Amino acid sequence: MRANSRENTTVVATISADGHTWAPTIIFKGQRLQADWFVERNGPEGARYACTKFSFMQGDVFIAYLKEFHKQLGDRMLLDGNPTYSYDGHASHVSVEVIRLAMNLKIILSQLPSHTSHITQPLDVAAFGRF
Predict the structure, then answer these.
(1) Fewest CB within 10 angstroms: 26, 63, 82, 85, which?
(2) In the predicted model, is pLDDT for residue 113 greater than 60?
(3) Burial of 100 (0-12, 13-18, 19+ CB in 10 A)
């Protein structure tokens, strides 16, 4: 994968407490995906791709992500309880639609305090710290 500019790209990695991983969601800055962003189609297996104005997880992209998260839980037969999804407290993630969807899918949303991801965001701290 490559983009033609030095714009930010967001990779949403999801890992369960027991170590299972989910296919990532990769978000580019833009209005629509461009074919040349996917050199030889060598992205991660099962990855989902999206574009947003600032390459952030927001709005419809977050809703689609939650639906895919739930689908992958079902595909792995891991829906025997109410899964908990922890996410940062950025305002772009919180909406009535997201809360309704989570309630319908029986996903417990656990919002981390805003502006504390450098301390509290599990993957940023433990897995993807500074290189």
Answers:
(1) 82
(2) yes
(3) exposed
Q: Is 4 a domain residue?
A: no
Q: Alpha helix (H) ranges present in the chain?
A: 59-75, 96-105, 117-120, 122
Q: Domain residues for 117?
A: 9-127
Specify if 17 maps to a domain: yes
Segment 16-33 shows an average pLDDT of 84
Judged against a pLDDT cut of 80, whether residue 74 lies above it is answered with yes
The verdict on residue 37 lying in a domain is yes
pTM as predicted: 0.76
Q: Are 59 and 34 in contact (CB under 8 A)?
A: no
Alpha-carbon distance 105 to 71, whole Å?
10
Average pLDDT along the chain: 79
> Alpha carbon of 31 to those of 11, 51, 55, 91: distances in Å?
17, 6, 10, 21
Number of domains the chain is built from: 1
3-state secondary structure of 66: helix
Asked, for residue 43, whether it belongs to a domain, the answer is yes
In angstroms, the CA 34 to CA 37 distance is 6
